[in-house]
Amino acid sequence: MAVEDAKVPPVPTAQKLEIRQNDDGRSFIAPAWLNWFELVKRKVDTLTALVVGTGQITGSGFAVLDGANWSTRSLQAGSNVSIANPNGVSGNPVISTSLATTGVTPGVYGDASNIPVITVDSFGRITAITTIPKAP
Hints:
Layout: E1 19-21, E2 27-29, H1 31-53, E3 62-66, E4 69-73, E5 81-84, E6 94-97, E7 114-120, E8 126-133
Antiparallel strand pairs: 1-2, 3-4, 5-6, 7-8
């Protein structure tokens, strides 16, 4: 089986999807639609067999097709980023960012007689600031 075997067929466009009643009062839909729904169910079953039945997916996370094999992935936290529920098992993952304080006091640095000297870290944050006297 391949992923192509699980592709959904085109929707029948020749007939509207509507539920009708027979003379005996039983409901039915047009045969083209019934065939389409049955085919979609078979395609879902095929995809389920591909993903679950192969045993390729174990654990929890997001299912991805990597070439011909299925595997799981989960979101990974990084520097200044935290993730609650990274594998999505308990609900939607929540990504939060935070920056540690730099120790720089907010304010205006420099004036007519002083020039600011600024230190910037790899995140573009000002980590230190002082002033030096302006040369005459």
